[in-house]
Design goal:
Elements: H1 3-21, E1 29-32, H2 39-47, E2 52-55, H3 58-64, E3 73-76, H4 85-91, E4 94-98, H5 101-113, E5 118-123, H6 137-148, E6 153-159, H7 172-189, E7 195-197, H8 204-209, E8 214-217, H9 219-222
Parallel strand pairs: 1-8, 2-3, 3-4, 4-5, 5-6, 6-7
Helix pairs in contact: 4-5, 6-7
Length: about 240
């Protein structure tokens, strides 16, 4: 697998999307999704100049992160159970998948114990898919101020995983709705929510056109996962 060539191709796609959207490439962070990838693959990508990686499972991250270069930074992007919050607070610099007030409160408690402030993104299930985690938009708006009042939580924006489709244009409305929801949230809080984490390997160009600031790239960078590791979960299209 030629990771250098893959990274170059991804960066060119990001640049092209930014040109179409009249945005600067510095506004978009490439987040490699390293789930199921060995430390050697992470190390190779890090040597190519990337130092921020996303993991889906706390248990995998606990084993992998200590085996990777110490200067790397990590985001939690998969579903987080409340009983894994302590480890998530310890290993990650941001949790992108906060999908309930109860989870936010537990992260806040664990962050307090660790004497740190935890940046988070709120995961939104825009399409209302039963198979996916995430806030329904209306409930997010109702609970936003309560989460924002937590002393050890810092809301930095929203995240979503759209329905899977081979046609990226079909999920443009999902990305647009997340951006509009972010704007409503900013009005409620009277403060900016700088990040929109949306877009994966198949659709990140459209996501950038709709305002993504973080794109989560797995397959386009690391290549297809082995068949034994694949599931039909949408997260595997990162």
């Amino acid at each position: 697998m030629d990771l250098a060539a893959n990274l170059s191709a991804v960066r060119k796609r990001i640049e092209a999307a930014c040109i179409r959207a009249r945005r600067d490439t510095t506004e978009v962070t490439l987040l490699p999704v390293s789930k199921s990838q060995p430390p050697d693959a992470v190390r190779t990508v890090a040597e190519l100049g990337l130092n921020l990686f996303g993991e889906n499972k706390v248990q995998e991250a606990k084993v992998k992160i200590p085996l990777c270069p110490g200067h790397l930074r990590w985001h939690m992007i998969g579903h987080l159970q409340t009983n894994k919050s302590r480890d998530a607070v310890h290993f990650f610099e941001m949790i992108q998948s906060v999908d309930s007030l109860a989870l936010a409160e537990e992260i806040d408690r664990r962050a307090g114990q660790a004497a740190k402030t935890m940046p988070i993104l709120l995961e939104v299930n825009i399409a209302g898919e039963a198979s996916k985690f995430g806030y329904p938009p209306d409930r997010l708006l109702k609970e936003l101020k309560q989460i924002n009042a937590l002393k050890r939580i810092e809301i930095q924006g929203l995240m979503t995983i759209p329905p899977w489709t081979p046609e990226p244009e079909k999920v443009r409305p999902i990305f647009r709705q997340l951006r509009e929801l972010k704007e409503r949230g900013e009005q409620l809080l009277g403060a900016p929510l700088p990040h929109l984490s949306m877009g994966m390997s198949g659709d990140f160009g459209v996501a950038i056109e709709e305002g993504a600031t973080i794109v989560r790239i797995g397959t386009a960078l690391f290549g297809p996962r082995s068949q034994s590791k694949k599931t039909k979960a949408p997260e595997d299209t990162a």
